[in-house]
């Protein structure tokens, strides 16, 4: 079944086709751009159950969502996530096209085969450096399990993409080494500008390695050709007519005009934008609907989501200009 018009449209006419679901805020890494120094984990009782999440995903797919990405925290830290991915396969006849996951890769060696067997279509791995000492400084954890996990994922046939957040003074020396390594591994690579989503709100613009900074470094070794962008967040460049990389330049070259994403936290708050200051609490309604599958209740929930999605701002610049305080950081919302 092919989805046509989406129910989930904002005031600027952008249809939402991609849903990102955080299944946990917990993570065994402490990346500064994501995790606060002293995180307060959500209580397990406050997490949306996988049963309620499946019901929510079914509603969203029926309304036009075509891609679901499982995020965290680290999603493989929540028991039952592999089975949840297997359950989501039931939504493909309704219009769901892709089921993806974003992970730090630490537990991937253990779970790669199970994820492949559950029907996971592709996997994004957050990897900000290939230098073991630098990696430990950035994450407070070890690099070797991540590299082993990536190797295992490739061996079982999972499509792997590497995401790298670049921060001035921390890992900007990794641009060329990561390109050489990812190309040799036959993996996609995306560089991401440091965004104001860090747990302790210490973000400053001078810490951003911009798209132009990255291109300047790449141009010392490669010929660059800009490719057509479409609705994807990354601007794509072909290096020496052989290998393509992406750059997500939210700060210097925002992609908001074609954004087709919405996000759900592990405790059931829907966010119509990665930078939205307020979410829509859905857990109470999802719990009620799970206990009493009622057409009227489902319709009410659909209308509530539609109204919230409609209110989505034009983009990062419009939201950031208001300087409103934000109660949620990346480790709760997911990438």
How would you portray this structure in words?
With 335 residues, the chain is of the alpha/beta class. The protein has 11 helices and 12 strands. It has helices at residues 50-62, 81-88, 108-118, 132-139, 144-155, 175-184, 211-218, 283-291, 295-310, 316-321, 330-333, and strands at residues 18-22, 67-71, 98-103, 122-126, 159-166, 188-193, 224-226, 235-239, 243-248, 261-264, 269-271, 280-281. Strands 7-8-9-6-5-4-3-2-1-10-11-12 form a 12-stranded mixed β-sheet, with helices on one face. Strand 2, helix 2 and strand 3 form a beta-alpha-beta unit. Helix 1 runs parallel beside helix 2, helix 1 crosses helix 8 (283-291) and helix 2 runs parallel beside helix 3 (108-118). The chain is globular. The model has no long low-confidence stretch (mean pLDDT 91).
